[in-house]
Design goal:
Order of helices and strands: HHH
Largest sheet: none
Structural class: mainly alpha
Shape: elongated
């Protein structure tokens, strides 16, 4: 069996319902075409996403603290 198809099927099975098969196929094709460059770009993208989530979490914590302070010390 073609390695691309095999990898696509395996990933699709693991993430069924979370990522479309089309997206999986596109990413697998990009990986086979660009190799390490693709992985580097995906890593950078994931780091940006993680940083964004961290900032959002910090903002939520700060707003929760300030709302608790407002309740405790009116």
């Amino acid at each position: 069996m073609d390695p691309k198809k095999l990898l696509s099927k395996e990933i699709s099975a693991k993430f069924k319902g979370h990522i479309s098969e089309r997206t999986v196929n596109e990413k697998v094709n990009q990986f086979f075409k660009h190799g390490n460059t693709f992985l580097l770009l995906e890593l950078v993208s994931l780091r940006r996403e993680v940083e964004s989530l961290r900032e959002e979490l910090q903002y939520q914590r700060k707003s929760k603290r300030s709302s608790l302070r407002a309740l405790v010390a009116p």
